Structures are given as C-alpha cells and as structure tokens.
Amino acid sequence: xxxxxTVQDLPPRWAHFYLEVEAFxxxxxxxxxxxxxxxxxLSGGVDSTxxxxxxxxxxxxxxNDLIAAHLNHKLRPDADLEEQENKKxxxxxxxxxxxxxxxxxxxxxxxxxxxxxxxxKLRYSFLNSLCRxxxxxxxxxxHHLNDxxxxxxxxxxxGAGWPSIAGMQAHEPESGILRPFLLFPKQELQGLVExxxxxxxxxxxxxxxxxxRNRMRxxxxxxxxxxxxxxxxxxKQLWRQARLDQDYWEEQLxxxxxxxxxxxxxxxxxxxxxxxxxPALRLRWYKxxxxxxxSGQVLAENLSQLDAAWxxxxxxxxxxxxxxxxxxxxxKGILFYLQMD
Length: 341
Prior knowledge:
The chain is of the alpha/beta class. It folds into two domains: 7-238, HUPs (Rossmann fold, 3-Layer(aba) Sandwich); 260-338, Uridine Diphospho-n-acetylenolpyruvylglucosamine Reductase, domain 3 (2-Layer Sandwich), CATH 3.30.465.60. It has twelve helices and eleven strands. Strands 3-2-1-4-6-5 form a six-stranded mixed β-sheet, sandwiched between helices. Strands 7-8-11-10-9 form a five-stranded antiparallel β-sheet. The longest helix is centred in the C-terminal third of the chain and has 26 residues, at 231-256. The protein starts with 11 loop residues before the first helix and ends with a strand.
C-alpha cells in the first residue's frame, strides 16, 4: 500500500492516534512545529519506523523540512545490513538522510564506559552535530511509554529524587530533543507500522539481559505490568504530576537565583537565604545549582546528606557529587564548586 501522507489517508483508529500525538506536542508541551526543520533519529526498529511515518504526516500538515539520521555502531554482524535497509527506506520516501559510523567498543574502553553508555553518548553526539550543521529546530526520537516506564524504574534503583524520578523529559530545550511518542505505548507504534505494511529490523542485542536496561525491559517491567495491568498508565499520570511540580519549583527557584553569588566554576549561598527556605525548596536549590555546574546525576541521598550537614553546622564538611562537583559548608553558608584536576 502507499504510505499515508495526510491524516485523511489514515483509517479512524490511526487518525485518532496521530491527532493525540499532535495534541501532546502542540498543546501539552506547548511547542509549535509549523515550518520547523526536523531531524529524525532512525534506528530502523519498529519505534523509529513509526516515527518516520508520523513525521511525514507532520511534514504535509505543518510544512516541515525533514532529514533522517542513522548511526551504525558496527557492534553486530547485522549492523551493515540494517544500515543498508535504512538507506533504502529513506530513498523510497525521497527523504534526505545521513549515515554515520562509530567504533563504540574502542570509544567505551578509552573512556571507561559501559557499551550502552558509550553508544548513547556517541549517538547523541552524532545527532547534535547534524542538528547544528543543518540548522534543525528539533531532534525527534522514538522513545515511548514503555521506555519511560523503564527509565522510571531505573531511576528508582539509582536513588533519584522527586520530580526527576518520574522519568525522562519529552522536550529538552538545550539540545532540541523532542520525544513525541513519550506517553504512548509501544503496542500503538507497532500497530501503526503493521498497518502500513512496512518492515523493520529487530536489534537482537536488545534481548541480551547482561545489560541492565534490557533486564528491565525483558524481565522486570513485564512483572510490574502483570501485577498491575494499568502500570503504564500510572507511570503516565506520575510523569504529568512531576511536570506540574517541576514547573512550580522552577518558578520558586527563579527568585532564589537572585540571592546567589556566582563565578564561572562556583556558586555561593549565604546562610540567611538558606534559613528563609522550606527544606523542600533548599533541596531543589542545591540540585539546581549542581546541575548548572555540569553533568553528573545528583542523587536524593547526597542532597539530604548536604542539608543535614548544613543544619548541623558542620563547618568545613565537603560533600562530593558526580562530575567533580563539591559542596562545602562554610561559616556563612554553602559554597558549590567544580573540583578542577
């Protein structure tokens, strides 16, 4: 069958699905994609194939300029075949596309990273580079509700705090990443691709339970869904509540930032400013400052440890955070800084 290019080309079920995705992006996230240039992250799996189908309808409806990008990590025997299949699909759709290649095994060893983390860093570096080169407004990825649920459970294991524990963002303004499928289950994406008759490639490495995320996907998440068939919907509701709370705390923090004393690699908060805060706001203020100092996930346990040290007046106490970040209790407040090598 010919691939759908407009909402009218879709049967009612899939037209409704498309309109729900559109409402999520335009109304709930408040983004305007009209006449924007979109970079589609294409793995060749069912999720990104569904994204490509929906992006074509966006293009016709909103006048978008589309390009696709695929990064071959050269990790599996089928990787080159998948690269060729992605290339054929883009050519069939007359879609400009870019192929990248990496040696993730060497890269990961060099930086002492796991293969999953190394592959993720290389993939986003590739996408960000293309986005800048071609002046794209958004990078669209095919993360969906099942991915969000996995992320939620993984963040619980790592000890993340509220509201970040609810999972990844749908839109990251700094990088331009947009996840239009984030609140939609994988089952819907697969159903759409099956309706069009397009084929996709299955990445067998996704079944390798030596990797934590794969164990979460193949073993732990299905257990939660068996215990509570509405678990994915609960994750969706939690994510929406977290987003509301995040908006509220960001509004509260805007005023507090005026009380900071900043330099290029440090930030100081005076005792009086801290004493005026509710403990919940103090913890979020700490996290906000540490996030601005650089990468490295801040855990709730570390933030609580810092606040306890401050309340106890433990002068000279230094709390370490990932990314070479430090917080030192001083006589008149707290000094946050990057520990330079």
